[in-house]
Specification:
It contains one helix and eleven strands. The relative contact order is 0.32. Strand 4 and strand 5 form a beta hairpin. By secondary structure, the chain is mainly β. It is 3% helix and 53% strand.
């Protein structure tokens, strides 16, 4: 139900906009929050940012503040992650996820999109 895209190879200092499109006409009726995670080679998956679907309230991990921005377009059922001033340490597979209203876990995961930052 979630399709992530927008990854690629960029030089340090560059930018990308990642997209996560959700399918299903009733998606917005049961999803409470959408988020982005990332997993670097040899490391555990880590939280990047989240946004409430209805109100658009956002929260970013400390490392993401000031460089990454999560947003959503309700009309397109799409969540974005604008990533700026990329560093080689940002190299990872970026995943989007969705959480249902009333759920304590992430219920949906996209397939991931690879971001590679060269020095």
């Amino acid at each position: 139900q979630l399709q992530a895209s927008g990854g690629g190879t960029v030089q340090a200092g560059g930018s990308l906009r990642l997209s996560c499109a959700a399918s299903g006409r009733t998606f917005s009726s049961y999803v409470y929050v959408m988020g982005w995670f990332r997993q670097a080679p040899g490391k555990e998956r880590e939280f990047v940012a989240r946004i409430t679907w209805s109100g658009g309230n956002t929260y970013h991990a400390n490392f993401a503040k000031g460089r990454f921005t999560i947003s959503r377009d309700k009309a397109k059922n799409t969540v974005y992650l604008q990533v700026n001033s990329l560093k080689p340490d940002d190299t990872a597979v970026y995943y989007c996820a969705g959480q249902n209203t009333g759920s304590s876990r992430w219920n949906y995961w996209g397939q991931g999109t690879l971001v590679t930052v060269s020095s």
